[in-house]
Amino acid sequence: MDVKNAFLNGDLTEEVYMQPPLGVLAPLGYVCRLRRASYGLKQAPRAWHERFVSVIWAAGFSASDHDPALFVHLSPRGRTLLLLYVDDMLITGDDRIIFPM
Amino acid sequence: MKQQLSAEFEMSDLGPLSYFLGIEVKQSTKGFHLSQSNKYIQDLIARSGITDDQTAATPMDLHLQLRLTDGVPLQDPSRYRHIVGSLVYLTVTRPDIAHAVHILSQFVCAPTSVHFGHLLRVLRYLRGTSSQSLFYAHDSPLQLHAYSDSTWASDANDRRSITGYCIFLGSSPIGWKSKKQAAVSRSSTEGELRALATTTAEIVWLRWLLVDFGVSCNVAIPLLCDNTEAIQIANDPVKHELTKHIGVDAFFTRSHCQQKTIALQYVPSKLQLANFFTKAQTREQHRLHLIKLNVSIPPLPP
């Protein structure tokens, strides 16, 4: 699985402003306030990772203590492993509901 | 679960695993073949400026001792650095060049004509073996075992030794390293003890990781070493006169022997697979090591 435009998903905790990009009609002297992270921000990778972790936690996964990019989901039916590399992920496991064979 | 994620993020499902982080995965009825693309190697060769069609049987000359001062400094060192950097990435699926790349990467700050010549040899070796892949069998048992080896004072510049290890899960190689040790060893046994400590640290981590994967791991992992003295010293505090200056490494390995995380075993040098990661091999040895590391030519697509 691959997430499109991953860094646009991050939430910002700081106030960040930018010059209106070309093609955006803004009154002279105005700047844009970012409501989400964007490419080129130094906090974007971290913001994306935190957002992903919060979503994957809500789905019942927890990060491995031994590899922070490995997320494990345990259920009585089996185990699901998710390996994340920025916005690319591998998902595998033996949980029959998540992996109907 | 995929729907759950897709509801939050815009995602694309790429189907069964075939390509991840530049690694090609081919599935067959017997298992998985992992490789990096042939094109990556061809592009590197093109960028290196090689004009002939020669290939080499092994990546490095036997008994090669490179020094910082060999040859004349390259006018433009960036090409050397670029190729070495690309080769480091290639070692992800090519354990057979790990040692040669480790040696050549020590000269990136001031590469010379001689270093560049040996770099070209690695590329010529790759040209002849570009379709090689690592094979991971479906029916491989889920038990770890590891090989650890060390040279002694092999570096001509600073007399430090090289650690080599490889770790298998059943028949599949899952970890390997070729790395110059941080301190100078006064004896081969001392070098071996440092290598054992490095390998033990990796095993400790892999054991934890396997438990996360749901693979129980409650037996001592066989760690094979070809130096009986190092095994004795790692098992018990013997030979005080020889070892009193060795710091943490012997204690670390010994504590894991006592906790039964690892079990040290002797292996004769000619069966020592980690040897592959400490020195250049003859053609025959090289071929033998490739077989042991489950290296194969991938099957043609159906």
Largest β sheet strand count, sense and barrel closure of chain A: 4 strands, antiparallel
Share of helix of chain A, binned:
10-25%
Number of helices of chain B: 10
Q: Which whole number gives the mean pLDDT of chain A?
A: 88
In total, how many beta strands of chain B? 11
N-to-C SSE series of chain A? EEEHEEEE
Biggest interface goes to: A-B, 27 and 20 residues
Strand residue percentage of chain A: 25-35%
* Biggest sheet overview of chain B: 5 strands, antiparallel
Question: What class do helices, strands and sheet pairing of chain A give?
Answer: alpha+beta
Overall radius of gyration of chain B: 21 Å
**Spatial strand sequence of the major β-sheet of chain B:** 2-3-4-5-11
| Shape annotation of chain A | elongated
Low-confidence parts of chain B: none
Query: What share of residues of chain B is helical?
Result: 25-40%
As an assembly, this protein is heterodimer
Report the count of strand segments of chain A. Answer: 7
Poorly predicted regions of chain A: none
Q: pLDDT average of chain B, as an integer? A: 92
Q: From the alpha carbons, calculate the radius of gyration of chain A and give it in angstroms.
A: 18 Å
The CA-CA distance between the termini of chain B, in Å, is 32 Å
